[in-house]
Every structure is written in C-alpha cells, then in structure tokens.
Design a protein that fits this description.
6 strands, alpha+beta, two-stranded antiparallel sheet, 26% strand
C-alpha cells in the first residue's frame, strides 16, 4: 500500500508540474520566416523554388523541382513529408480546403480561393 500511495503521489506531482509549465502551448501561425526556418530544418538537402503558406497559417507547401515539400501543424509542432509534385499539382480544392494525401495522414490546407496551384507554385 505504501508503494501504491507513493506512485500515486509521484504521478500527481508530474501532472501538476507539466500543467504548471504549460507544456501544451498553441503553435503560432506560419509566416514566411518561420516557413523558411522549418524547411531548412526538415529538408536540409532541398532548396525550394517557391513556398505557399495556407490561408490560416497552419501549413505550407513548397516546390523543389519535381518534389512537393509539405508541412502541416499537428499538436504543438509540425509534420513534414515530401511527395511528387504531380500528386499535389493535380489536386482540386473544395469549399476553400485542399486535402493532400500522404502515406500516413490526410492534412487539409485552407486556400484563399479555389484556384490551384497558386501562382507562386506554378
């Protein structure tokens, strides 16, 4: 019983400590500088030709030759994947949203209008 009580107290202290630190914090929307910094970290071997940031700042798509470099917000961080550019260029937005299929997820990006790809990526 003493060991069980000690474990309960330890878990309660850890939960209280993480709540006090504010570990789960909102991720700010992407801007041009943040997008370039994320691309440099996630895709150090690629030099993007053009970058498009979603209308809500929750993700971005960059074009690097025949590749599409895709970043989107997940939790309090960002997830990065690369796809063939043709898979992204052939997408059709609907109701201001663009759904991209990657092998392990389906991120949705907010687009300002239903024209895809935008001029900066074309």
């Amino acid at each position: 019983m003493i060991q069980l009580g000690g474990s309960l107290v330890a878990v309660a202290l850890l939960v209280a400590f993480t709540a006090w630190l504010g570990v789960a914090r909102p991720t700010p929307p992407l801007d041009a500088d943040a997008a370039k910094a994320l691309l440099a970290v996630e895709f150090p071997d690629h030099r993007p030709d053009a970058i498009w940031i979603a209308a809500d700042g929750a993700g971005m798509i960059a074009r690097a030759g025949t590749l599409a470099l895709v970043l989107w917000r997940r939790g309090d961080g960002y997830v990065a994947r690369d796809l063939p550019w043709s898979a992204v260029a052939d997408l059709k937005p609907a109701k201001g949203r663009l759904a991209v299929r990657v092998p392990d997820a389906r991120p949705v990006f907010a687009v300002a209008d239903d024209a895809w790809p935008p001029r900066e990526l074309a």
